[in-house]
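Much of what follows relies on a compact textual record of a protein's fold. The record below shows the convention in full:
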Amino acid sequence: MTRTYTALGLQVPEIFLCRPGTDLTKWAVIACDQFTSQPEYWAEVERLVGDAPSTYKLILPEVYLDKPGEAERISAIQRSMSEYLTNQTLIPRDGLVYVERTFGSRRRRGLMAALDLERYDFSKGSQSLIRASEGTIIERLPPRVRIRENALLEVPHILVLIDDPEGTVIEPLNAQKDLLTKLYDFDLMFGSGHVAGYAVPSMAEKGIVSALERLADPEAFRAKYGAGADKGVLLFAVGDGNHSLATAKLLWETVKPRVGPDHPARYALVELENVHDAGLVFEPIHRVLFGLNQDVLAAFKQFYGDRFAYRKCASQAEALRLTDQASGPSHMIGLIRPEEAGVVEIAQPPSNLPVGTLQACLDTLLKAGGAQRIDYVHGTDVVCDLGAKAGNAAFYLPAMSKSDLFKTVILDGVLPRKTFSMGEAKEKRFYVEARRITL
């Protein structure tokens, strides 16, 4: 039975997990918004999964959005959801789930819970308890609405952060891990690490709620961040999957007048993580332009005038190194093109972060038709590979400090869209759990 802590915007949900005997390596696939310019990855997922039960059949990888066959794929998703519920591929259980994700030498800890969409607002200037950390691109929501609006289930890749430097919410579960009931424990496909989940008992749940209440105390919050009385308490900041959560919010607002306040669509299943977790690394999200028909250096010169400078480098590695080592007031951005690599420098930048400085120019270039499209990619290898292909240009950005996230969002507002990524592509959340969003 679900339990709701209204003041925290938190619900202890009914979570569906695979029945024993399911091949979980085939069941769990990576977040649908990964490898969006690499259809070969998703083709390999489909080959590996075959006829086995899999969350691949419950999602629409974004590489296939707005492509021929989209409607048929959505219909197939709906049929699979119904089938997995009917044949008990998915079995419900009540309670929070403690999750450990291992990738290489790093271990990241999380907590599966449901958040109240009534306490979430992704609009600019929001002071809600749950809010976006980066800008929301409204144009990206309609195709996601088409997928979710008639779905029986949600499978989440949303990662939501808490600012808990003392480790009072999630970390105590690690100390109790040997006493917890293990729910799953398996290797993820394609060398993406390992994941294990544990049932959280009621006594531990009480400790989690008490710790969250302390973080949400208004006086403690204002003292911690030096925030004025005009700043609302930010308890949960969306780190990954903001557009998925925004989609859930839009649909909830649509159905709320018809279904009333106690409908499961009011909540969304997420994984909570502590921004101070040693296993959590903020990686930059790079940009790639496809189908260029304008010289990008000329575009920068036109946009920034005499504040623009460019340094050609002997190699891609040099361009990346100079970008990572940059200091001082100017912003440095690596540029990878088929003919060369270099570093763009913008003096007196208009944004606090290089990503904002870059995006302003790219938005203007795209609006003028200087490229066919843009994609947002993770990982050094991907940005270098795509940038070196004919007709493309890739922009390499430095990482931001994760310890600055909450204070920046609270005092300055949301970051530029696609500022950071919680780990590289293969470290992203894999779908394991599901939750019913219809009665």
